[in-house]
Amino acid sequence: MNKTWFITGSSRGLGRNLTEAVLKSGDKVVATARDIDQLNDLKALYKDQIFPVALDVTNYEQVYSAVKTAAEHFGRIDVLVNNAGFGIIGAAEAYTSEQVRSQLETIYMPQLRLRVPSFLICANRVQEGFYKSVLLADALVIQA
To answer: Beta strand 4-7 with 28-33: parallel, antiparallel or unpaired?
Structure first.
């Protein structure tokens, strides 16, 4: 059975590579990015298999709306990958409070922001199986 993936940060890096691999496997992807124009080539190639959604993971209202829209579009979300993020390089003691706050808001808080609405919206669609969350590096994978 094909699965539906919800992947944040799909436009570049690991998120882009994962999105391409999932699409090549035949699964469907809700591909989120701040700039969904960067996904136009994948949309042209995979057509209805990919559903690009503009998303700033630091905005809870956008997160809830994106999850709801995704569930309505494909009927469910089977795998949730929180991959959005960015890196800062330097000595930890040199980071400003704003840099640390921005990192936490982008990398760690979306795990909570995505988990709650995806569970509430999709839980009633889970007929069998389980709902499991696993933290792998900075990517959160939730599989129903």
So the answer is: parallel
**Side chain identity at 72, as an amino acid letter?**
E
Domain ranges of the chain: 4-143
- Would you state the torsion angle of the CA atoms of residues 45, 41, 137, 139, taken in this order, to the nearest 10 degrees? -80
Rounded to two decimals, the pTM is: 0.74
- Structure tokens given for 94: 């040199």
Give residue-wise pLDDT tens across range 50-108. Answer: 999 999 888 888 888 888 899 889 988 888 888 876 677 778 788 888 887 777 776 66
Q: Sheet containing 79-82: give its strands across.
A: 50-54, 28-33, 4-7, 79-82, 139-143, 132-136
- Does the pLDDT of residue 130 top 50, yes or no? no
- Tokens 């591909």, residue? 31
34 and 108 Cβ atoms separated by less than 8 Å: no
Pairing of strands 79-82, 132-136: unpaired
- Which amino acid, residue 114? L
Q: What is the three-class DSSP state of 116?
A: helix
Q: State the CATH architecture for 4-143.
A: 3-Layer(aba) Sandwich (3.40)
